[in-house]
Design goal:
Length: about 300
């Protein structure tokens, strides 16, 4: 079900200030991610959909999405670059020049000079974000409640914890992800705990996390089998110090800026990915590691 603008506004008005502030920030962050992903893919980078926008934007040197304004209704105070009055005004900034553009989503192509396929991807992504907002608001209106056993939030993903603490419904994709968690967590969902098979070694675990879904490779030697060149160690540490958390983004930066081996699996994942993760985890043993759908790893390095 898709809400009308009036229905959406009505349910949003029933939320408390903290809930509305959270959703507003999440909408901006999600749109940043969609926009950055489209721009990165146009440049030939292969980035998982769930990478943080800050990481993806490290690959870009042109336009980045900075936010939007909702006037509540079409207002002459809020205008597109072409002068048209807007309710929703999207804003982008050029990383090199600092130029700022403000426009309605329908004029994205005209004002940024990007091709139709990128515009289509961005609009499709923005529509998906609005659909999830509607899903959450509909659940809120119907007083949807999670399984009480899920309220034991120790170890749950950060985004799920945020929703539960704020009293916001979980999205279907979040519930699905919880059901796909390891057996120790499944008991909170459906009281089912199948036997756990532990990997025989850390090496087996690493290979299982990073190579289970890759297509067969040609026998040509790769960076993953020969080890990470020492010349890449300092650049990786510099990217980490600069705030890049995604191993996939670090791989793309190494390929673009350090001329690292650009061989890839058929899925698009760089073959140096495993060795980059291994180096980071050896160099920063206290790092907090989050596996992102087996497509990426995100690292939070304590200061």
């Amino acid at each position: 079900m898709i809400l009308t603008v009036e229905e959406r506004d009505s349910i949003l008005s029933e939320l408390n200030e903290q809930q509305r502030d959270f959703l507003s920030k999440q909408l901006v962050r999600s749109r940043r991610t969609v926009f950055a992903n489209a721009m990165a893919k146009e440049k030939g980078f292969h980035i998982p959909e769930n990478a943080d926008p800050e990481d993806i934007e490290a690959l870009l040197d042109e336009w980045v999405y900075t936010g939007y304004i909702d006037a509540g209704s079409v207002s002459p105070e809020l205008r597109c670059e072409c002068g048209r009055s807007l309710r929703y005004q999207h804003q982008v900034e050029h990383k090199k020049t600092g130029e700022v553009k403000k426009f309605g989503i329908e004029h994205l192509k005209e004002h940024l000079g990007i091709d139709a396929s990128m515009v289509s991807a961005i609009k499709k992504g923005f529509d998906a974000i609005d659909y999830e907002l509607d899903e959450m608001l509909i659940k809120r209106k119907s007083d949807w409640q999670p399984n009480p056993e899920m309220l034991d939030i120790e170890g749950l993903p950060e985004d799920v914890m945020s929703h539960l603490k704020l009293g916001l419904p979980l999205l279907d994709r979040q519930v699905k992800r919880l059901r796909q968690q390891p057996p120790a967590r499944k008991v909170w969902i459906d009281n089912y705990t199948p036997p756990v098979q532990e990997p025989s070694s850390n090496e087996d675990m690493l290979l299982d996390l990073f190579t289970w879904q890759e297509e067969p490779m040609a026998p040509k030697p790769s960076a993953a089998s020969s080890g990470l060149p020492a010349s890449l160690h300092a650049p990786i540490q510099a990217y980490i110090a600069g705030g890049v958390r995604s191993a996939r983004v670090i791989c793309e930066l190494l390929i673009r800026e350090q001329h690292a081996d650009e061989e890839r699996f058929l899925t698009g994942k760089p073959k140096i990915f495993i060795e980059v993760c291994r180096f980071i985890e050896q160099s920063y043993p206290n790092a907090s590691v989050q596996a992102l759908d087996k497509e990426d790893r995100s690292y939070s390095i304590p200061e």
